[in-house]
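Ticket #4471: structure export looks truncated?
Reporter: QA, pipeline team
Priority: medium

Steps to reproduce: submit the single chain below to the structure queue and open the exported record.
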Amino acid sequence: MKKSAGVLVYRKINNKIEILLVHPGGPYWQNKDENCWSVPKGEISNFKTQNLKPEILKETAIREFEEETSLKLNKEDTNNLKYLGEVRSSNKILYVFVLKKDFGDDFKVKSNLIELEFPPKSKKFIKIPEVDKAGYFDLETARKKLVSYQEKIIDKLINFLNTKDKISQ
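Actual output as written to the record:
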């Protein structure tokens, strides 16, 4: 089973929650807009399945967020990351950390490049950005854009925010 970790960044604009999502790069995804966006995330490379330490998850989530978005998290951001939980598909587990932060609307992502065989089975390889765009979306729009197994993240975020609000009252 593939295991990855990511950072779900949210902000509050006009009393509405918006979350930051990324769109995969490359020719296959260029004309697709629904059920393909994701939380910025990446595979956990240095772990033992039985001994997955929280600090490894957090380090991976931060590294992958920065690699995929080119947005930097400062020390205060990394200290404020909270573990939101995990979501699963039949062959993947995504460990998600949450952070309230507004990067504005004018940022451009500059993702790391990955090598991809294209067209498939052609033995020809191209380099593509892992992510070609990113943006904030309200929760209803995000639910439509997210890869289906990640939709549960929205419910986890809503529960987290409701609990957080009750504690601070």
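Status: closed, not a bug. The export was complete when the record was re-opened. Leaving a note from the reviewer for reference: The chain has a mean pLDDT of 90.
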